[in-house]
Amino acid sequence: MTASSDTPTESGLLRWLAALGDLARLRILRLLETTELSVGELAKVLQLPQSTVSRHLKLLHDGGWIMKRTEGTASLYRMDDESLSPDACQLWRVARSQLGSSATFQEDDRRVASVLAHRHADSKAFFGRLGGQWDHLRRELFGEAFTAEALLHFLDPTWVLADLGCGTGAAAENLAPIVNRVIAIDREPALLDAARRRLAGFDNVEFRQGELTDLPIADGEVDAAIAFLVMVYLPQPDQMMREVARILRHRPNANSVAMIVDMVAHDRDSFRHTMGHCHLGFDEPQINQWAKSAGLSDVRYRTLRPDTTAKGPGLFVATMRKRPHG
């Protein structure tokens, strides 16, 4: 590709501004500024159809913003400042400085890291490294589910566990065979009915209808509590955190524990209307503040590894503990 012959004339400037006048193309340029990516990899990172990404790439390539090279059957793209005219470089620097660090860009960074990690794993498998061969053999012989299921047995089998916002019982289905008892809570009767049908084969699951900010659980009744993708629906999530602290028991020689899985802070405002979310995810300082205000300690907040096939925002897992007296 040769450098753009555009000069800062009216027509050239308008073409440059048109190229930078779309958020998807800005996201693409921001990624390609530091990393060479294929169409498929960009589609996974941006959570857009490949046809849409290809259309944006063609416009950017035709405008001289990016370079393209072929490796086997794949086309790889990158942004090369040296191929741009000085005026175009200056315009990009201005645009780049105004982008800031939004939740969307943070999600892009997490997803591109995951894509590159998968690329490395695929490369190892392609060249016949032992690790790649073993992963394939293990999946072929034993499937993929056994690892997560086996790790559940690290849980204390004496626990009474509260599944807050249990929905149709997906989490309880995995936990009921491991712990002593599960108390499944949801405010929606239809979801509780679905969970009852799903968990009909377990005699250690109890269903209770109630609000997560006013739990139908006695003080100190449970050893552990989990909440999967429910806090975003609560007008006052800090109140649920106080309820969690209330229902966890003071165990004589061990901590009781709570785990929350929910969305990281994001800027997809449409979720308020399409899914009824009260909050656009949560960041680490929010979770820390609410947990500590509720009297919980040892708070750990970790973002989960992105699934590049998923279309939603990134997720985090937060754990916190209620320490024994003394």
In which order are the strands of the major sheet placed?
6-5-4-7-8-10-9
CATH architecture of the largest domain: 3-Layer(aba) Sandwich
Radius of gyration: 25 Å
What is the number of strand segments?
A: 10
Mean pLDDT: 87
Report the sheet with the most strands, covering strand number, pairing sense and barrel closure.
Answer: 7 strands, mixed
Bulk shape: elongated
Helix content: 40-55%
Distance between the termini: 70 Å
Strand content: 15-25%
Which features would summarize this protein structure in a list?
326 residues, alpha/beta, Rossmann fold, 2 domains, seven-stranded mixed β-sheet, three-stranded antiparallel β-sheet, 10 strands, elongated
Map the helices and strands.
Blueprint (H helix, E strand, L loop, with lengths): L9 H11 L2 H10 L4 E2 H8 L3 H13 L4 E5 L2 E5 L7 H14 L3 H24 L3 H13 L3 H6 L8 E5 L5 H6 L5 E6 L2 H10 L6 E5 L14 E5 L8 H11 L8 E8 L7 H4 L9 H10 L3 E7 L11 E8 L4
Parallel strand pairs: 4-5, 4-7, 5-6, 7-8
Antiparallel strand pairs: 1-3, 2-3, 8-10, 9-10
Overview of the structural elements:
It is a single chain. This protein is an alpha/beta fold and 326 residues long. The chain folds into 2 domains: 10-130, Arc Repressor Mutant, subunit A; 146-322, 3-Layer(aba) Sandwich (Rossmann fold). It has 13 helices and 10 strands. It has helices at 10-20, 23-32, 39-46, 50-62, 86-99, 103-126, 130-142, 146-151, 170-175, 189-198, 237-247, 271-274, 284-293; strands at residues 37-38, 67-71, 74-78, 160-164, 181-186, 205-209, 224-228, 256-263, 297-303, 315-322. The strands form 2 sheets. It has a 7-stranded mixed β-sheet. The model is unreliable at 1-7 and 126-132 (pLDDT under 50).
